[in-house]
Structures are given as structure tokens and as C-alpha cells.
Amino acid sequence: xSTPIKVAILGARGRMGAAAVDAVSAASDMELVAALxxxxxxxxxxxxxxxxxxxxxxxxxxxxxxxxxVERGLHAVVGTTGWDEPQRARLEAVLGQHPEVGVLIAPNxxxxxxxATSFAAKAATYFDSVEVIELHxxxxxxxxxxxxxxxxxxxxxxxxxxxxxxxxxxxEKLLDGARGALVDGVPVHAVRLRxxxxxxxxxxxxxxxxxxxxxxxFGHSSFMPGILLGLRQAASHPGLSYGLDRYLxxxx
Length: 252
Hints:
The chain is of the alpha/beta class. The chain is built from seven helices and eleven strands.
């Protein structure tokens, strides 16, 4: 039998972290060696002999946590939102000193969401118009969501690559924010509503037809298969991978 993956989870006392603790504990090929909460020393990770780290903390501490792991040769799977381009650039510089280490930062670990985003990027090359609507619970601190930003970026890149012109929009008068936030030229609308968990729609339209791609997450359990997949494959993908789609064979 192969040696189990020794996992330390940061943010283990949050809802996502608690779900990850249960998922890793139940995985036959993994061993949960440390579960850290706010105020715990990062040295507990290495003291426990972890080889992989899952970061499910807050944006203010995530970069330091992941840097700590990389500098000690530990692979990392990161579900904390808010990683911008300068942060990713700094992390890539650290990874350059540790080329054997793999880090996955994923805006969303739900496999259905990752697939829906990939399908949307492909479909967007065939339609005149595209907009993104993301819907979450009112306790979410960022808007738009990281998933929506990633979706818009991939859509925009696909449309540029295919030579698709900008979507038609004759709006001249509007209230501030009425057309959403523009992410790489793609309108993104954020809804915050009690009772929701995590949901996203991509609306695509051309003359005479429309296509809607929607994904719904109803609980934190939807993210666990993606986190486990990341842990199993991180060592095989050295360097920084942004988006779980990098670990999936999508065929396009």
C-alpha cells in the first residue's frame, strides 16, 4: 500500500475547514495530521510531518500561510479567495526557489462549477453577447466572487482568441452599477440573498436564441471532491496552477 498523503488543514474551525477535515479523515489514501485554527502556530504543520497543506483561511493570512508551506517544501491546495495578480506573482517567485513544489489556487472546488465555467468559455466564442450573474449568501465578503471573476476572464480570453467582437450594448444612461462590474469587458452581476449558498449563471445570446449555463452548490460538501483531487495531484503539477481546470482533462 502506498504511503498516505499527510495533510494539514488551515482554517479547520470554519465551515469549509470543518468539511475538509471530515473529507480528508474519510479518505483512505490520506492522513489528517494537523487541523489549525486562528491563533495556532504554523510550526504545528511541520511538527506534525505534513507533506500537503490545505489553506481555507482569510485573505489577510493566506499568502503568508502558503509561502510558509512552499519554503518548507510542502504542496498546497488553496481555497481562500482574494488572490490577486501581484500576490500570485510573489508566490511564483517563491516557487522558483522550490521548483519541486506544486500549489493549486482554485476560486471554486466544485467540479460542476469548474466544468460549467469551461463550457461557458467555449460557448462564448459562438454567441454575440455574454454576461455573468453570481448569487451567494449575504455573509460573503467579496463581490464579485472569485469564481465569477475567473469565469469572466476565461470567457474574455476565449473570445479574443476567436476574434469575437465586443458584445453589443447601446446603453447611454444608467445608474451607477446597473450594468454590473466589467471584468475584462464582461459584465458581472452579484446578488446577495439570504437562503442562497453559491450559484452562478452565464447568459449567452445571439439573434433568435439564448443559452443559459447554471451551476448550484447547496452545501460545502460540493467542494470536497475538488479539494481531494487537488491534494492527490498537486505533487504532479509543480509550480503554480490557478484554477482546478488545470487538473482536469477537458478535451479542449
